[in-house]
Design goal:
Layout (H helix, E strand, L loop, with lengths): L6 E2 L3 E7 L1 H10 L9 H4 L5 E4 L7 H10 L1 H12 L12 H7 E6 L3 E2 L12
Antiparallel strand pairs: 1-5, 2-3, 2-4
Organism: Pusillimonas minor
Protein name: VacJ
Amino acid sequence: MPEVDHATINRNLILIVPKQAALDWIRSVDSQPIEGLTLDELRQEQEVYLISPDIINTPEQAEQWALQRFSVLFASFLNSWFTDQALWPKRRTRKMFLEWFEVQYHSTIWDLSTAPLEHEEWN
């Protein structure tokens, strides 16, 4: 196997990973459910948040960061499944967020690409 150039980057990673309550909600509102959708499948492809280690460098700090932004993170997940906000839970709380999502923290990010990092602005 050829040797690969690799380095870590100066970011930490946060994942907001759905739990069973999120899957139960999807199943309860989906008029055309994905047959056999499992929690493992739901958890496969999630948004990743890269954060400076100056801001977050422990799992506890990652959870606090997510809880401070729970409304936006929650809405992002809901919108990725159903853009009709009438289907969304009406009252979303921090407690509900923690029932629906696991906050994962990772401190080492390996960059195995030789392509330069690019930033794309989203409005």
